[in-house]
Amino acid sequence: MFKKTTLSLALLGATTIANADVLTTVKPLGFIASAITDGVTNTQVLLPTSASPHDYSLKPSDVEKLQSANLVVWVGEEMESFLEKSVDNLAKEKVLTLEDVEEIKHIVEHTKEEKEEHHDHDHKHEHKHEHKHDHKHEHKHNGHDHDHDEDWHIWLSPVASEKIAEQIAMRLSQQMPEQKAKIEENLANFKVALNTKSAEIAKQFENVKEKGYYTFHDAYGYFEKTYGLNSLGSFTINPTIAPGAKTLNAIKKNIAKNKAVCLFAEPQFTPKVIESLSKGTSAKVGQLDPLGAKVELGKDAYPQFLQYLADQFSECLAK
Ligand SMILES: [Zn+2]
What we know:
InterPro entries: Bact_metal-bind_prot9, ZnuA, ZnuA-like. One of its GO terms (biological process) is zinc ion transport. The structure is a single chain. The protein is of the alpha/beta class. The chain has helices at 6-12, 27-36, 60-68, 84-88, 102-123, 158-175, 180-204, 221-227, 245-257, 272-278, 301-317; strands spanning 22-24, 43-45, 71-74, 95-97, 138-141, 144-147, 212-217, 230-236, 262-265, 284-287. It contains eleven helices and ten strands. Zinc ion binds at residues 54, 153, 217, 219, 239. Zinc ion (ZN) binds next to loops.
């Protein structure tokens, strides 16, 4: 948006960081950032929407982008292990790791505990809820540890997204103190737009809330919880690992038993299994795009993204 020129640099003087380009990993983080940077600086997104953060690998041009950005916004190694090493090489003040933000951590851990308590009640598990049994749920992928009970798809949580916006605003204001007023105004506008949209979506779902469905990967927990949707489960926790025959059989039985209305696929993965599962059942196949491929960056992008996702849900569920 704003091209760096010798002239503007000279005018601004050495004390100011001009042109603080914000670079986010996934596009929805870019939706949030572009609301905060509106009229201040520009926002760029690292990952193409055809790629999944679960199995991305960096290209040399990505490394260049990371190095030239003034603020890199990423979820963290739980979600984006491909970035761990590159981020370590960047100056600390240039990186916003959302995983390390207390308020966001709190949302994720609280949700995880709720899930575990639910689990214990529903299935009368032997073990009592303990805070220190995390290691039992850890699996290794590509040499990295992942706690699968923690859901780091935080850009699908309107509440977490508000915190993300606050963090970006804070960091940007530190880098560009002369723009603080504009950044604060952008943040306030973002919050209003987000809450207005969220209320609209809650209304939109009123008639489809009861309808059961399966998703391809376990990414939508925050969105589902926010709007009270009736998810029956997902095919896989990590979408890079294909569901096994056992899982598929169980789902096949459950589609009929639970009267699942929809099976949701995703553009980032080509799940042949979903098509084959829908055959012989009354469940329809829908699409959910957790990365908002069709939404463009801009100050209203995040509410538009929520609406885009809401429409994808209700289009299939309402049929
Ligand atoms: Zn995911």
